[in-house]
């Protein structure tokens, strides 16, 4: 279970998160929606361990442990995974080399046996097949020359291999056509499990037609302003964020 308690954070003296509270239970898919600048991506970066943000108060507890006290690599080993809105290209680093190094590094950190090359190859091929990732993509440098959809599929492949406890999807639908959105969403849905929770960050209800959330939270002014079921996303799609922007200005 993830518990975010009174999280306050700023960057360069500007407060971005202002007493944010949120609980996500095991097996739950929680969606966060909100206007630009409300702090959605900042929340994902802080949980994953991105530098530059100053944490002024609060905790982020994963199964009772405060991940804010961990290094980013320790958070990953504990089960935190962030799928970026804009995955980075890494020239010169082969995709398969990266995947094997990441997977076995986490297994070592968890005191698990590293996968042999045949075991690793089988795991990658099985997961890649489900995500419709062609073999030639796996032979290229990581994300280099990939389309937006291919980059997102590659991140879901990483998630499938690493089997995290808590998955954060930061605007995964950004730049995807309808076919890529379907494939990526099917990959995410296949990973839903009783011991795995998701935080899905998006502007639009479209993604949530494919990855149906258990709860929807509206974020504005660095905090959760309202929570509800999946019908809340439909309401936001119809009415927009004008009411919440007004609350920000008040």
UniProtKB/TrEMBL annotation:
It comes from the Bacteria. Keywords: ATP-binding, Nucleotide-binding. InterPro entries: AAA+_ATPase (IPR003593), ABC_transporter-like_ATP-bd (IPR003439), ABC_transporter-like_CS (IPR017871), FeS-cluster_ATPase_SufC (IPR010230), P-loop_NTPase (IPR027417). The keyword Disulfide bond does not apply. The keyword Nucleotide-binding applies. GO terms for molecular function: ATP binding; ATP hydrolysis activity. Residues 2-246 form the ABC transporter domain. It holds the Pfam family ABC_tran. Gene3D superfamilies: P-loop containing nucleotide triphosphate hydrolases. PANTHER family: ABC TRANSPORTER I FAMILY MEMBER 6, CHLOROPLASTIC (PTHR43204). Belongs to the ABC transporter superfamily. Ycf16 family. This is ABC transporter ATP-binding protein. It comes from Salinarimonas ramus.
